[in-house]
Write a structure and sequence with these properties.
mainly alpha, 2 domains
Length: about 140
């Protein structure tokens, strides 16, 4: 009985977090906030669902496989989100209009793809695009 309640709780919380990640994709205003919502909530939700499945089957082999998958998710999801975000920033994807502070502005060198502690010359800085795509607007 306690095992069933634990499995149900883990699965429901995991499913809720996965749904929250999906909602984050739809509701967040820019690429960077969308990635943040999905990387965090999606990883935690998937981990809890896997943990619930491992508790349900209650076998050592299942526990080790679930643990390996959870560790793999915890290692790869943040790195992938960081790399996608870095590529998006370098490509000039615009920030949300409500963004108060851009800590990378003026410190990201376009020619070498590196962050500098000092100010980068204006001609070597990344510039945000006014549009989110490379296609001209139709009139």
């Amino acid at each position: 009985m306690a095992q069933t309640i634990l499995v149900l709780t883990l699965m429901l919380i995991g499913a809720f977090l996965m749904a929250l990640a999906g909602l984050g994709i739809l509701r967040m205003p820019d690429t960077f906030l969308r990635m943040s919502a999905t990387a965090k909530a999606g990883t935690l939700g998937a981990g809890l669902i896997l943990l619930g499945a491992a508790v349900y089957f209650n076998e050592f082999a299942i526990y080790t496989r679930a643990a390996a998958i959870i560790v793999f998710l915890l290692i790869t999801a943040p790195v992938a989100a960081h790399m996608i975000g870095r590529a998006a920033y370098f490509d000039g994807v615009p920030l949300w209009k409500g963004t108060i502070q851009d800590d990378l502005h003026g410190h990201y060198r376009r020619s070498t793809h590196t962050l500098e502690s000092g100010e980068v010359p204006a001609q070597d800085q990344v510039e945000a695009l006014s549009e989110s795509d490379d296609f001209p607007e139709e009139e």
